[in-house]
Amino acid sequence: MNHGQTSTDVILIGAGIMSATLGTLLKELAPDWNITVFEQLGRAGEESSNEWNNAGTGHAALCELNYTTERPDGTVDISKAVKVNEQFQVSRQFWAYLVQHQRIRNPQDFIMPLPHMSYVRGEQNVEFLKRRYEALSAHPLFQGMEFSKDPGKLREWVPLMMKERKGEEPIAATKIDSGTDVNFGTLTRMLLNHLKEQDVDIRYKHSVKKLKRTPDGLWELKVKDLSSGVTQRHTAKFVFIGAGGGSLHLLQKSGIPEGKRIGGFPVSGLFMVCNNPEVVRQHHAKVYGKASVGAPPMSVPHLDTRFIDDQKALLFGPFAGFSPKFLKTGSMFDLITSVKPHNLLTMLAAGVKEMSLTKYLVQQLMLSKEQRMEELRDFVPGAKSEDWDLIVAGQRVQVIKDTVEGGKGTLQFGTEVVSAVDGSIAALLGASPGASTAVHVMLEVIEKCFPQQLEAWKPKIKEMIPSYGLSLEGNPELFQSVHQATSQALGLSEAKPQAVSVS
Ligand SMILES: Cc1cc2nc3c(=O)[nH]c(=O)nc-3n(C[C@H](O)[C@H](O)[C@H](O)COP(=O)(O)OP(=O)(O)OC[C@H]3O[C@@H](n4cnc5c(N)ncnc54)[C@H](O)[C@@H]3O)c2cc1C
């Protein structure tokens, strides 16, 4: 393979789950297209997509309380939960297609069945959870959800959380067995390996420094080979900026007007991890609680069983924190150098508006291990400090932009595809719900950037994702059939292990 300058159809910047997903989709839709991937690290899936840098929750809104809101009349709005669930079904269908067609193998290496639970304390929260359960369990996408405030039942579901629990405070939980734990790092590497077998040119330790339009409408990238120090120029008809936290800077360098007046606000994450097998075997679920007042939605505390490298571990967090870096391996100047004349007012407005958030993040960063253990003891009253270690997870760069509803400098918590009007370049910003919805988001990139090819590609997309273009909410039979088929293909329908109660 020629490792000099290239002129290709597609360049993907970054080897995280987003580029891996887009590359895999494009290889199915246009097998003849040449694709090149540039990744500045030595391996795929080493930044946010790495298994230790995110929580590995297959976000299907089965347990995350922040995807439902309480209306003033006390009823519960589940529309966002339905949307997130539908998006996760799209991922499941694509992953199942890839397994069935031997593009990737051994799904148990990247996805495991795991009950998803919501857990609350206090009379008012218990009441809310019950109303939320009633709204969700009546919906076809959330069937099988159970609710309980009976301590006996809860001991059966989450023995570790009930052990040594004292006091009269009411608690309650919901549980649904169709949840998953996803190892996005392994999945990313599986997809990149598959792309390599399809002759995709993947260059690690290659950092994209600059990009500009050429007079003939192509994109020219200046890419530095970090091993040799040599900088080369590479051109492509289409560029996807899937650089995670690095995407905003590259989007700004592209100079496209759609990338103006957008800023980024980094939020870092820390987890507590427990590898003591005696403790680990007493818990078998992802249990999401309620965010504390003033906390951003992505710092909802949760206690998760994780399956990483054939080992089970427990993860608790995330504790939010503030760091000016946009990537875990980024620079302390990332935040300041992202401020440009065109986004200065937006950033200043956000700075004023989000003063309390910044204060909250700095406070979180200052917590001692014992203070973090106290938060964990809300979930696991008997948790011992010696069983838990602190690990640094990935950085999330939240999008800041001017919106009609929020005004100037509004912090966004979702993901955003920003693309040029001619569809020749697209960037992905933001990180929530994140990797779980990678397939849905990358289909959005395809719809925005390849409108001429879309009609011809639709039959293939429907073959890979049978629900494409349809609402599963409106087609419960289709939901049943895709859910069953994907459970089978991904090995999610077998008998599930229970948590072991140790008295
Ligand atoms: C603490 C935390 C918890 C999370 N929990 C979950 C969860 O439970 N479930 C979920 O679905 N999502 C979760 N997410 C979000 C999820 O991890 C991200 O949305 C997802 O991994 C982003 O993938 P990506 O491919 O866009 O970015 P990344 O995985 O960060 O990949 C970007 C790649 O681009 C490379 N790069 C950057 N700049 C350049 C350059 N100039 N040249 C070449 N390469 C470059 C980087 O090295 C990196 O490898 C979490 C995130 C965090 C931080």
Summarize the structure.
It comes from Paenibacillus mellifer. By secondary structure, the protein is α+β, with helices and mostly antiparallel strands.
Strand proportion? 25-35%
How much helicity do the residues have?
25-40%
Give the distinct bound molecules.
Answer: flavin-adenine dinucleotide
Whole-angstrom Rg: 23 Å
CATH architecture level-2 label:
3-Layer(bba) Sandwich
User: How many structural domains are formed by the residues?
Assistant: 1
Low-confidence stretches: none
CATH topology name: FAD/NAD(P)-binding domain
Structural class: alpha+beta
First-to-last CA distance = 61 Å
Number of helices: 15
Order of the strands making up the biggest sheet:
7-8-6-15-16-17-14-18-19
Could you say which overall geometry the principal axes of the C-alpha atoms support?
globular
Biggest sheet features = 9 strands, mixed
* The CATH class: Alpha Beta
- Tell me the number of strands: 21
- What would the average pLDDT be, to the nearest integer? 93
CATH H-level superfamily: FAD/NAD(P)-binding domain
Report on this structure.
- It is a single chain.
- This protein is an alpha+beta fold and 503 residues long.
- The chain has helices at 17-29, 79-100, 123-137, 151-157, 159-162, 184-197, 247-254, 277-280, 334-337, 344-353, 355-365, 369-377, 438-449, 451-464, 476-489; strands at residues 7-13, 35-38, 69-70, 76-77, 111-113, 116-121, 146-148, 171-176, 180-182, 201-203, 206-213, 219-225, 231-241, 262-274, 286-288, 302-308, 311-321, 388-403, 407-411, 416-419, 425-429.
- It has one domain (7-489): FAD/NAD(P)-binding domain (3-Layer(bba) Sandwich).
- Helix content is 32%, strand content 26%.
- The longest helix has 22 residues, at 79-100.
- The protein starts with 6 loop residues before the first strand and ends in a 14-residue tail after the last helix.
- The protein has a 9-stranded mixed sheet with strand order 7-8-6-15-16-17-14-18-19, with helices on both faces. Strands 1, 2, 10, 11, 12, 13, 20 and 21 form an 8-stranded mixed sheet that branches.
- Strand 16 (302-308) and strand 17 (311-321) form a beta hairpin.
- The structure holds flavin-adenine dinucleotide.
- Flavin-adenine dinucleotide is lined by residues 13-19, 38-41, 46-49, 53-57, 59, 184, 207-208, 242-244, 246, 250, 269, 318, 327, 393-396, 428, 431, 433-436.
